């Protein structure tokens, strides 16, 4: 069984962007206020998970994994792959700790 990783909605308005820099297969995609993983491209190496300082990257075996896989894959197919690290918001530490931010998701590409 191949395991993939997913980005949870705690990433919304946070976007540290440390994760994509270590990804050996460039499976991260970016919207205006969130990053997702293309679960079909992810090779389950796990190097991205510890890079996120607010712990938003999870293996796809978490509770409600189906929802996270669907969300990540849907937007990975619509957004451009992330290729240049930007600066996180000034209040990134506070934003990263907030939960239940799905309503804040900006579906437009970055």
Automatic annotation (TrEMBL):
Alphabetically ordered keywords of this record: 3Fe-4S, 4Fe-4S, Electron transport, Iron, Iron-sulfur, Metal-binding, Repeat, Transport
Keyword check for Ribosomal protein: no
Record GO terms (molecular function): 3 iron, 4 sulfur cluster binding; 4 iron, 4 sulfur cluster binding; electron transfer activity; metal ion binding
PROSITE patterns hit by this protein: 4FE4S_FER_1 (PS00198), 4FE4S_FER_2 (PS51379)
InterPro entries named in the record: 4Fe4S_Fe-S-bd (IPR017896), 4Fe4S_Fe_S_CS (IPR017900), 7Fe_ferredoxin (IPR000813), Fd_C (IPR022569), RnfB_subfamily (IPR050294)
Domain 4Fe-4S ferredoxin-type, chain residue ranges per copy: 33-62
Entry cofactors: [4Fe-4S] cluster; [3Fe-4S] cluster
Xref: Pfam families: DUF3470, Fer4
UniProt KW Calcium keyword: no
Entry-linked PANTHER family: FERREDOXIN, OXIDOREDUCTASE
Function noted in UniProt: Ferredoxins are iron-sulfur proteins that transfer electrons in a wide variety of metabolic reactions.
Protein name: Ferredoxin
Organism of derivation: Litoreibacter roseus
